[in-house]
């Protein structure tokens, strides 16, 4: 007699963080042994054997459930809503990547939904006092294993205590928020779209949701997958054979869902003592932080450049206003955009502003300004030209903002900004900005005799968390009155990484371009007249008879003559540098990671002048003879396991010195220092 499907995985450890949602592929080692005492259960017309301690409940029925999220974080949270796994982490990331795709998940422009049609047959649960069935080796590891990372890697952070068996069809969609339009909740429309696809939608539902379904299907990438049931009737065949597939589930039973909140239980609940349970539980968030998959706007999404304001776009000449106003914009191109006009109290364009572009094109950090909302115009002033103020709005005004308002002056109409006038302005994701402050007034309409009042105010960055404003001119906010605006304003943000660690590893995670900065600073140094760049470790400063500085000596015996020397601090690390056959110790703080290879900034190399040089397998294998030891060179051949597939392991480039370099490699490759577990060198 066959064992009842599901019994073999009930009690297994489960990879909730990077596994699939309700999938046998994410089950790890089974922690329990229920013995050899079996009972018989009947499912449909079939009889199965099942360990007596396991709780079986017949639960025949069908259901349709749906979840959705306006971001991948919301979707992940909805996915976890049934199990309520502890912590705010992106659980079941393999399902996200398989159903949605990593690129789609990382885009801020997408919304996500999942409709699950279930054919339930029965449920299985662990007995109330299941710890008595815990396997001896699992109990020992849970109680004594010192490396909790290994413990979680081996058994998972949770174990499977309850499950639903049957068959399921999952209808997953990735929806473009910029084109999708509906007054109904996304999860409802997704469910109606599923019903329409399998011809189960009622006439009243079709009439009510017709336009929403059309917009949803035109704006979405949809996939449909089945688990359980006859494979020949599932998958792409399911919409035309849904009823036949459902009837076949009894013959193809699968694990299809979790059984509520108690389905996944933390393995710390299996510890023998409260102290050990607390120790494991305390480590759980740390483990999740280390192992979690990052989606969406976790990293920098924009690179920015500071550019001059070269163009005065509009001014208030002829308006009659007592104050003068000019609005200026930068020249843009090459995929760069600006975030709004800059306003000045009269005069020509001056100062600098930021232009930005997405680090990952299509990530959704920048979107088009969809419409302009009028804040004021000078109707009633009876001037020959028109003047007006506008506020830009994206397709989603909650998740995207236009950082500066828009002034049109000296024009022939009171219309919204034209495409040409607003070309290059982008709305930016709120994940890239921080709340800002309203500063002093720049301009008001006093003197225009317009029917309505208006004023323009500076936007100032907050005290912390924003881009340094000392090098750029502020954006502005307008209001239909002479009072300070009370609507929210924003500023481009920056973040500091690794604040929980020491200051040496702090880094700005700003929406700015570090690569561009490095490139520009390198250019400045290289082109400065009478400045020469030399790199070496200075070991002594040599003075003359009158104690005046004459030169500096380096570790490699090269001297540099100079009438003055400036000494600066060095990076404190504990390691050893090898140049050919000569080596030297460095630093003393003990912070250098073992085995870290030397790195070259790819932006400092002109790769267009290089050609690819594939790895030479025989050369490497024939010369991996020596093993570097702490006290010198071990001249015995090292037993080093090379990979069975070496293609692509080591690849470099060749320049003008190719021939000479090959001779040096052939002659001296055996002198490369490395650890047993590492390759002799890395080329990036």
TrEMBL record:
> Which domain of life does the UniProt lineage start with?
Eukaryota
An example of a GO molecular function for this protein is:
flavin adenine dinucleotide binding
The chain positions of domain MACPF read 1-298
Q: Which cofactor does it need?
A: FAD
Q: Which Pfam families match?
A: GIDA (PF01134), MACPF (PF01823)
Q: Does the keyword Ribonucleoprotein apply?
A: no
Q: Keywords on this record?
A: FAD, Flavoprotein
Q: Answer whether the UniProt record assigns the keyword Flavoprotein to this protein.
A: yes
Biological processes per GO annotation: tRNA methylation; tRNA wobble uridine modification
Which sequence ranges form a coiled-coil region, renumbered to this chain? Answer: none
* PANTHER family the record matches: GLUCOSE INHIBITED DIVISION PROTEIN A, PROTEIN MTO1 HOMOLOG, MITOCHONDRIAL
Q: What is this protein called?
A: MACPF domain-containing protein
Query: What is the protein's species of origin?
Result: Selaginella moellendorffii
